[in-house]
Amino acid sequence: MQKQIYVIGHRNPDTDSVASAIAYAEFKRRFGFTNVTPAIAGTPNPQTRYILDRLQIPVPIRLSDVHPKVRDVLNRQPVTASPHTSLKSALELFHQHAIRVLPIADDARLPVGIVSLLRLSEKYLGASTQSRREVETSVTLLCDCLEATLLAGDPDLTVAEYHLFIGAMTGASFAARISGYERRRLLVITGDRPSIQQEAIESRVGVLILTGGFVLSSELLARARQSGVTVLSTPHDTATAAWLARLSSPLTAFIETRFEQIGVNEPLEHLRIKLLHAQEPAVIAIEEDGTIAGIATKSSLLAPIPYALILVDHNELGQAVYGAESVEILEVIDHHKLGNAPTSQPITFMAVPVGSTCTIVATLYRERGIEPDEAIASLLLAGILSDTVILKSPTTTTRDREMALWLATVAGLDYLVFGREIFSAGSGFSAYANKAEAIHADFKEFNAGEVRFGVGQVEVVGFAEFLEMKEELRAILLEIKEKDRLDLAGLMVTDIYSETTLFLAVGKNEIAHLFGYPQLEPHLFELKGVMSRKKQMIPHLLKIFGALQ
């Protein structure tokens, strides 16, 4: 089965991460990779939603958690049996499907237990001599297992316990052998021996089985019917018939009614714990309605996960979709500093010092001689303009400008006009449902030695709106700091026209002495000419925290 591959950005998807995911998935499809799909790890911000709506591009599938689930390693077409299945039929299922554990389900497909081949053999072969004579079965099961014809009696599903006797002696000896047994609980197997047949019928045994395809005389058959003796004729010889009679027992006697079960949507790690720590050979996986979805054994833990990831606009697992560390990562396309985890095998890794991941993707299109369609070209252009603040950010490179001009030509757009439109539509705090959402929309966490800090960024046109709500925003930052156990939580409010950032920070108050920019009031700094979190703010904070340690 071909793996599903998701191209996905970081947890707080901005325009660059969403646009690069969509465009790179389309790039892969151009080369025949039909199993590649763009995805997002969170809610797109207002600017990104505006761009997708304007270009009539669907929002990618949302994957908030890619931790492998039980369903990912499960065969959803399980081999099951009912409690009334014969031991013979169950053994055939074990053999035909090369399985070791058979889940038992009722008529509604709800699990009632399991039968393991190991424990079944232990119970069947380890029986005592006396118990081996006992057969728990029904007339219907006997007919089925022995491929027998019912000569007298009714096909009955009622299970009863019988004592099995082989009639391979004289009638008198047979009568002595069955003396002391409850006659209706006797199951007698014999061949062409009229004396045994007559003695069994006169003794009113429960079941008489004739082997070798033999039948009763019309006189004995009439007496059997009159005496209520069930008579079967099987084509098998006596030895085989005795063996098959024992195998006609229903599984009810062999079911392990105490069993482990797990939901198909539970994490695979939960299954691992159950299998490795519980003394059970298997775990039954159940659907949401409680019916059997499949059976999981230790070998299930070795099954390949049916999906993999391509990371764009980030390479650190701390920023990746939850569960990324448990899934195969095939490629990374990014423009940030390296912080990636090691991989078990070589992968495609592109980390280019440009202003936007969309610049890297656009370069791949151009180098391969592929011209994106108008919508994809516009989307890539939007990603570049967003991440470079219309090519004003200090992160902007010559390649960003080249790709922006090329994409603008392909899309038939004036990049300056287009840039102003997307910033006007998606900038400012009013574009978000609430102030907390505005902070969380582009909030990233970082480490500087023992210091953990997080910085969000909101682009605005003028600071009037921010200054009115800065105390509320500071309270929210304080909550984030406490909840996420950060040493500092900050918010960059960047005016794209004045190219100035106001930085609101809570925690690590001692940074004021080393900050190097004017402090307008407690917790608030003015950074003229600072627009980039990646290239300006984070390196500056790392330097400060390094000096404090």
Walk me through the topology.
Blueprint: E1 4-8, H1 15-30, E2 36-40, H2 46-55, E3 61-62, H3 87-97, E4 101-105, E5 111-116, H4 117-125, H5 129-132, E6 134-137, H6 139-146, E7 149-152, E8 160-167, H7 171-177, E9 186-190, H8 194-202, E10 207-210, H9 218-227, E11 230-233, H10 238-246, E12 260-263, H11 268-277, E13 283-286, E14 292-296, E15 307-312, E16 329-334, E17 348-351, H12 357-367, H13 374-387, H14 398-411, H15 415-426, H16 435-440, E18 443-448, E19 451-460, H17 464-483, E20 488-495, E21 500-506, E22 519-521, E23 524-528, H18 533-548
Parallel strand pairs: 1-2, 1-15, 2-3, 8-9, 9-10, 10-11, 12-13, 15-16, 16-17, 19-20
Antiparallel strand pairs: 4-5, 6-8, 7-11, 13-14, 18-19, 20-21, 21-23, 22-23
Helix pairs in contact: 1-12, 1-13, 2-15, 7-8, 8-9, 12-13, 13-14, 13-15
Q: Would you give an account of this structure?
A:
- The structure is a single chain.
- 36% of the residues lie in helices and 22% in strands.
- It is of the alpha/beta class and 549 residues long.
- A six-stranded parallel beta sheet has the order 3-2-1-15-16-17.
- Helix 2 (46-55) packs across helix 15 (415-426) and helix 8 (194-202) packs parallel to helix 9 (218-227).
- The model has no long low-confidence stretch (mean pLDDT 91).
